[in-house]
Design a protein that fits this description.
The complex is a heterodimer of chains A (411) and B (289). By secondary structure, chain A is an alpha/beta fold. Chain A has helices at 3-27, 51-70, 90-103, 115-127, 154-158, 161-169, 181-197, 215-224, 235-247, 264-270, 272-275, 291-304, 314-330, 338-345; strands at residues 37-43, 78-84, 108-111, 132-134, 147-149, 172-178, 200-207, 228-232, 257-259, 279-282, 349-352, 355-359, 365-366, 370-374, 380-385, 401-404, 407-410. Chain A has two domains: 37-152 and 288-368, Response regulator (Rossmann fold), CATH 3.40.50.2300; 156-282, 3-Layer(aba) Sandwich (Rossmann fold). In chain A, 43% of the residues lie in helices and 20% in strands. Chain A has a seven-stranded mixed sheet, with helices on both faces. Chain A has a five-stranded parallel sheet with strand order 2-1-3-4-5, sandwiched between helices. Chain B is mostly helical and 289 residues long. Chain B is 73% helix and 3% strand. In chain B, helix 1 (2-32) packs across helix 9 and helix 10 crosses helix 11 (260-277). Chain B starts with a helix and ends in a 12-residue tail after the last helix. The relative contact order of chain B is 0.21. Classes of the chains: A alpha/beta (411), B mainly alpha (289). Chain A binds chain B through residues 49, 51-52, 55, 179, 205-208, 210-213, 215-220, 222-223, 236, 239-240, 243-244, 247-249, 265-266, 268-271, and chain B through 2-3, 6-7, 10, 13-14, 17, 115-119, 121-122, 127-129, 136, 138, 140-141, 209-214, 216-217, 220, 252, 255-256, 259-261, 263-264. Chain B: InterPro entries: ABC_transp_permease, ABC_UrtB_bac, BCAA_transport_permease. Chain B: Keywords: Amino-acid transport, Cell membrane, Membrane, Transmembrane, Transmembrane helix, Transport. Chain B: Its main location: membrane.
């Protein structure tokens, strides 16, 4: 073949594929709910660094799917969970999300614990016009039309907590967090609240992820004598911090750690003795006393062992599947597409273990903030329960910006 | 001023932990030339052994220490026998092999025991703090400092005062000639590797009440241990001790004047500079290979 021939032919071929691509897309209008099953993706890491927590989200979502199928499914169709393990690696999340959304034709994908993995999936779910159900509390400042946010944003964790802590313990806050986006955004919001309430920040400090020697942080705390330690330290760092804080013999009654990130999972590793007396703010605690929660905890422990714990992220992973089901029920089976599910989901209320939750038109969830005090048995006692359901404001720290049903609006 | 003294104590405490972690590595790396990337996993095994003994037999950490030492030493001995022994003449391959061993150990613990963080109770008699003026020192950390000095002294005595130490030093200097004199070099190496592993196990046991016990805990610790060994100079016990104190104190002072994140960066920067001007560390041993 002459070079010129080759060029013209390959050019023609490229032209042809270029032309046929849109036709290909429109001709295969996906029948999302074919064959009597509704495929849903489960994209939680079962291996790798964050698997410790994330596998419990998988377990909770899996349990919800099994419960729904056992009760007859939706429109007589069973939910068909398709499990992928992205192994704690953000790039793999994007890859597996693509696989679930394109090859497996999932109408929705449930997944992610970390913000990094959610952000990796974001362009995939947006370009595929799919729906990604994200159960974790996060830093806000995001407003995708293709993500359903089931966890708390800063205003839902702090509006109740900060005034209470300031009133009860005093105005001097010491901020300690891991060095990444979540703690920084939470601290940003906390500072705007403290400014309004007349509190002060005595120190704002970030340690690397996985940091385990808090001796110098504790020395600084000792020197500053703040009223409240406002903690956004996560995972193993939090375990080390809590144990060393306890070993330093600080009294939680006059210098408590109030944490946005410490859940039953961390407390199990910290040990009840070291965790006792400190506080966490979250919409859900395992010890929360409602019939829905009792049922949830019993079913969970029956399935995954008597020492399994439920916490504020896997509770959301659980109720999000039910929100998904409720949205499906509002649709005619022939109309099931991810975006139709999204539009149907807005406004749905549901009795979750934490209380009745509502999906806002900005796709975040109205939740019931609570403050729990950790007890020596490793459970939190809910000592302040929000009187009303709190609306999600993902841009609360940014004046003039808000997340609405039309996406991000800047004033 | 109190802040400084508190911080210096923190530095010393950090140094003592670094020292017990690095000492085993210094011996294995320094005397045998094996770059043992599985060292962090030996530390992890020590932590899990402590957890297991506390959970199943009710041993406190102090009681468990000798058993942990023996258990991890046994693991090290087996690994030396099965894998490392075949690679003494190929030092670069030991990096790959020990890295692989590390991954296998980590995943084995993850699959067998579970990935979640385990709780180990600190020894009750060492709860509390010693307070001098405004300087507050945790009893447990004081214990770790004293213990690490003890381990250093014991290791030094083992290397210089015993017949085993003499044989080891002979083998290090010239393996062939020592074998001619009837020293069983392979046995000496086995025991040295086992001893180094056992020390790592002790380090793991000591840090359980302070850190969190997870399968991946060794990964970051092995980096610190290598920093200590490289700064101290290969095979030098005194070098390892000096380097541990230096790194601990410099980290503490930097994290006082800046913060922990910048402090860490500054320490790594200092080490790079030091290696630039003293490539063989603070106390290089002159060893003929």
């Amino acid at each position: 073949m002459k070079r010129r021939d080759f060029l013209s032919r390959s050019g023609a071929a490229i032209g042809a594929t270029g032309l046929s691509a849109p036709a290909l897309l429109s001709s295969t209008r996906w029948a999302y709910a074919a064959n009597g099953t509704i495929p849903v993706g489960l994209l939680f890491s079962l291996t790798g660094a964050v698997a410790v927590v994330e596998s419990t989200l998988h377990d909770a979502a899996q349990m919800a799917i099994e419960e729904i199928n056992a009760a007859g499914g939706v429109h007589g169709m069973k939910l068909e969970p398709i499990v992928e393990d992205p192994a704690s690696d953000p790039a793999t999340y994007a890859d597996r999300a693509r696989r679930l959304m394109i090859r497996d034709k999932c109408v929705s994908v449930f997944g992610s614990y970390t913000s990094a993995s959610r952000q990796a999936v974001l362009p995939v779910t947006e370009s595929r016009k799919n729906l990604y159900w994200y159960p974790t509390l996060y830093e806000g400042r995001e407003c995708s039309r293709n993500v359903m946010y089931g966890g708390a944003v800063p205003n839902q964790q702090q509006d109740l907590l900060i005034p209470w802590a300031l009133e009860k313990f005093g105005p001097r806050f010491y901020m300690i967090g891991n060095n990444y986006v979540y703690p920084k955004e939470e601290n940003n919001y906390c500072k705007t609240l403290l400014e309004k309430l007349g509190g002060t920040v005595v120190n704002e400090e970030y340690v690397p992820l996985g940091h385990s020697d808090f001796a110098s942080v504790i020395n600084r705390i000792r020197a500053e004598k703040p009223d409240v330690i406002f903690s956004t330290v996560v995972g193993d760092s939090d375990v080390a911090f809590a144990r060393q804080y306890h070993a330093a013999e600080f009294d939680p009654a006059d210098m408590p750690v109030v944490s946005l990130t410490r859940s039953e999972v961390e407390v199990k590793a910290i040990g009840g003795e070291a965790a006792a007396g400190h506080y966490s703010s979250a919409p859900y605690f395992m010890g929360h006393d409602t019939p829905e929660n009792k049922k949830f905890v019993e079913a969970y422990q029956k399935k995954y062992g008597a020492d399994a714990v439920t916490h504020f992220v896997n509770e959301a992973a659980y109720f999000q599947v039910y929100q998904f089901k409720a949205a499906l029920e509002k649709l005619d089976p022939s109309q099931i597409t991810p975006e139709a599910i999204r539009d149907a989901a807005v406004g749905i209320t549901l009795n979750a273990p934490q209380g009745e939750v509502l999906i806002d038109e900005n796709l975040h969830t109205h939740l019931w903030p609570k403050i729990g005090q950790w007890q020596a048995d490793g459970q939190a006692k809910v000592i302040v329960d929000s009187a009303e359901r709190v609306a999600p404001k993902p841009y609360a720290a940014y004046e003039g910006q808000s997340c609405t049903g039309q996406g991000l609006v800047k004033a | 001023m109190d802040v400084l003294f508190n911080q210096l104590f923190s530095g010393l405490s950090m140094a003592s932990i670094l020292l017990v972690i690095a000492l085993g590595l210094a011996i294995i790396y320094g005397s045998m030339g094996v770059i043992n990337l599985a060292h962090g996993e030996f530390v992890m095994l020590g932590a899990y052994a402590t957890w297991a003994m506390q959970t199943y037999f009710g041993f406190s950490i102090l009681v468990a220490l000798p058993f942990v030492f023996l258990a991890v030493a046994l693991v090290g001995w087996i690994i030396e026998l099965v894998i490392v022994r075949r690679l003494y003449r190929r030092p670069l391959d030991t990096i790959l092999a020990t890295w692989g061993i590390g991954i296998i150990l980590q995943q084995a613990v993850r699959l067998g025991i579970g990935a979640e963080s385990r709780f180990v109770k600190g020894p009750g008699i060492l709860d509390g703090n010693v307070v001098i003026g405004n300087v507050v020192m945790s009893n447990y950390r004081i214990f770790v400092i004293l213990f690490s000095i003890g381990v250093l002294a014991a290791t030094w005595a083992l290397m210089t005062k015993t017949e085993f130490g003499m044989k080891l030093r002979a083998v290090i200097q010239n393996r062939g000639i020592s074998e001619c004199y009837g020293i069983e070099a392979s046995r000496v190496y086995s025991l040295t590797f086992a001893y180094g592993a056992g020390l790592a196990g002790i380090a793991g046991a000591l840090i359980t009440p302070l850190y969190s016990t997870i399968p991946t805990m060794g990964t970051s610790l092995v980096v610190d241990a290598f920093l200590v060994v490289i700064v101290g100079g290969l095979g030098s016990l005194i070098g390892a001790a000096a380097a541990a104190v230096m790194i601990g104190e410099v980290t503490a002072v930097f994290s006082m004047v800046m913060n922990d994140t910048l402090g860490r960066i500054a320490v790594l920067g200092c080490i790079i500079l030091l290696i630039r001007f003293r490539p063989r560390g603070l106390f290089p041993e002159t060893v003929r290979r």
